Amino acid sequence: MSPVAATPGFFCANSARVRGDSMAGTASPGTVWVLIEHRAGWPPSGYEGLDLEAGTKALVSRAARTAGARVLLVRRPGPRPRHGPKRWAVLRYESSGAHRQLWGSWEQDADLAGIVPALASPGDPGLPPVILICAHGRHDPCCAVRGRPVGRALGERWPDLVWECSHVGGDRFAANAVLAPDGVYYGGLDAESSVATIESHFSDRIHAEYLRGYTDLSPVQQAAIVAVLARFGPAGRHHYVVTETVRDGELWRVQITGRPPRPANITVDLLARRSVPSQLTCLAPSTGSVVVYEPTSVRSA
Questions:
Q1: What predicted TM-score, i.e. pTM, was given to this entire model?
Q2: What percent of the chain stands above pLDDT 70?
């Protein structure tokens, strides 16, 4: 890691596009999300930085850690009321596709304690997924600069489903969208491409172009799925299943099974390498590199 001098006007998302950084395999892992509506400004550290009643805050944090849940602050795009009841939710991914959600409301800090039993509940199936757009400008300026226009565009199309959210990872891929509890990350979006991408998602046609990965898979498995979609065309969230992953040093082989009419057995070979050190976020104090998984072969039996 090398020190980075502050560069006026530097935007990590612009630099990532110039470098051609690969998004495949970069979705943050997780299958449970806690959403807490907070309409005022978000601290750089998100939920952990909020000035909440200490006991309730610690209770929710412990329950979220136990459940392996990610806690995100959310708010509606555009103008919003400063007062009145706010919402919270627990979203849970299931590999069967029967994703579950449980929603509540809060006015006083103590009301957030309702999240704790919700994390132990299976939740309700059948609700549409939530569209989360990272717009956490105090964490990374690119998230606000690129995320907010996308949030507004999607909010006009799906006003009941879209929320701006705090940091989800991969600032350099802003604008980032997370479909939860589907567990699908998209990146590199703008207002026009985001609407088309989410419309395709709801039609069970996930394209490779803006896909970062699925949150229930490891990074190399995510990259393999992206490679399969690029090779054989768009498919639904559960149309492909990873059945085996084998590593031999820097080489990986991922076996994938497809539902008809897609290929039944697919083998993806990938090479793991480290990227050239660069400044990966707008506010990074030093350069860094990441592991990139490059597909070298995608073949069906």
A1: 0.94
A2: 97
Q: Which domains does the chain have, with CATH numbers?
A: 12-216 (3.40.30.10)
User: Are the beta carbons of 295 and 227 closer than 8 angstroms?
Assistant: yes
Are the C-beta atoms of residues 213 and 226 closer than 8 Å to each other? yes
- Tell me, rounded to whole angstroms, the distance of Cα 110 from its chain centroid: 28
**Greatest Cα pair distance in the chain:** 59
Residue 99: count of CB within 10 angstroms of its CB: 24
Q: Is the distance from CB of 103 to CB of 88 less than 8 angstroms?
A: yes
Is the CB of residue 162 less than 8 Å from the CB of residue 78? no
For 246-299, what is each residue's pLDDT tens digit?
999 999 999 999 999 999 999 999 999 999 999 999 998 899 999 999 999 999
Scan for tokens 């991922």, then name that residue: 254
Q: What string of DSSP letters covers 70-122?
A: EEEEEE-SSS--SSS-EEEEEEE--TTS--EEEEEEESSGGGGGGHHHHHTS-
pLDDT tens sequence across 90-140: 999 998 888 999 999 999 999 999 999 999 998 999 899 999 999 999 999
Q: How far apart are CA 210 and CA 226, in angstroms?
A: 9
